[in-house]
Amino acid sequence: MQEQSSRYTKWVACWGNATSITDRRECVFAKDITLRYPIKVVFAGSKLRFRFSNLTGTENVTMTKAFVARHDGEYSPVPITFGGSERAVIEPGKEVESDEVALLVDAGEMVDVSMYFADCTQMNAGTLITGPLSKGKYSYGDYASERDLPLDLTRNTNWFYFLNTIDVLTEEDNHALVCFGDSITAQSWPDYLSMRAWEEGYRDVSVIRRAVSGTRILRQYDCITYQAYGLKGAVRFPIEMNVAGAEDVIIQHGINDIIHPVGVEVNPFRPWSDMPTCQEMQKGVEEIYVRHARKLGLRVWSGTLLPIFGWRTYSEERDALRQEFNRWLRESALFDGCVDFDVAVRDAGNIVSFAPGYDSGDHLHPSESAYKAMADCVPLERFSHCRRQ
């Protein structure tokens, strides 16, 4: 085992989400609950470590215990510890990192990460994520170390609470690609990109999603109606770029800056003063995203904004702003390249609209086939060190 694991010398994130404010419903606390998230580990490695976040919480979260378990015949859960203790207290606004967990994992295998919360727990730090690789479950009771969750006490969930990042101690050539954005990125295309990379033999890259529905580059909401739309770019980006082994970031962000403002006479939380100019959006991307990414040594890829024709706040003026911003994203020398998502999903004969079959029905979010098209247009062969095996 020592001979096998001696080649593993570099920590690289193999899975990750953003952490934001959960949707403000009547019930925001849970007690005696198990959370379980199946995770695909794309790299072989000898150790794992886990980051848990209470970034948007307002009180301590006490995680009674947590386990990681391989999907093998024995299903032997391994405790995740913190300074030697199974119990972790995550203070509001803080994140905690686990001890290193010695566990040999194979590239492409699935592991379960399970957490149990015995006490009354504020469920305020989490993110809604969808996609074929993004599934979770919760159970009433303590089942964190069990292979099977009780059917009658268990439901599926796409809310990912507290679990923020998983790193693996792996080979030196492996690296992470970060996908940063809003609801478009919180949905399926990063999962399809990860699946495509694996299927096409790009086995040295993980896809790390940092996305929160409703977020904007320049503004954020402080009311409970829209708190789940999360933090603005200047707050999010420095936190979310804490990604071990990252070498590239794709930024697909800004459509909510354009479509949200409607005037206080329509919605008191969405004044017209929130409507940016293209120059303000460009400045935000440069000063908030690109400069920080360069300090981290990352290559930066722009991602164009998708069609919005038919969306409930659509107007020709808004779409003109989107297209002006897209031209800048395509042409600016600030970036190492552009991932032209807009071209991948728009109707060639009517470029303000989605192509047939590519609209989810709300005229803002793509269909599943369109998310696959978005993943397919990412030029993996041009990314740092990506190579087929």
Explain what you see:
With 389 residues, the protein is an alpha+beta fold. The protein is built from 9 helices and 25 strands. The strands form 7 sheets. Strands 8-7-12-4-15-16 form a 6-stranded antiparallel β-sheet, with no helix packed on it. Strands 1, 5, 10, 11 and 18 form a 5-stranded antiparallel β-sheet that branches. A 5-stranded parallel β-sheet has the order 20-19-21-22-23, sandwiched between helices. Helix 3 (189-199) crosses helix 9, helix 4 (233-240) packs parallel to helix 6 (278-295) and helix 6 runs parallel beside helix 7.
Question: Keywords, please?
Answer:
25 strands; 9 helices; alpha+beta; 389 residues; five-stranded antiparallel β-sheet; six-stranded antiparallel β-sheet
List the helices and strands and how they pair.
Blueprint: H1 2-5, E1 10-16, E2 20-21, E3 29-30, E4 33-41, E5 45-53, E6 61-63, E7 65-70, E8 78-79, E9 88-90, E10 95-97, E11 101-105, E12 109-117, E13 121-122, E14 125-128, E15 136-140, E16 154-157, E17 159-161, E18 163-170, E19 175-181, H2 183-186, H3 189-199, E20 205-211, H4 233-240, E21 246-252, H5 255-259, H6 278-295, E22 299-303, H7 316-331, E23 337-339, H8 341-345, E24 346-347, E25 350-354, H9 368-376
Parallel strand pairs: 19-20, 19-21, 21-22, 22-23
Antiparallel strand pairs: 1-18, 2-14, 3-13, 4-12, 4-15, 5-10, 5-11, 5-18, 6-9, 7-8, 7-12, 14-17, 15-16, 24-25
Helix pairs in contact: 3-9, 4-6, 6-7
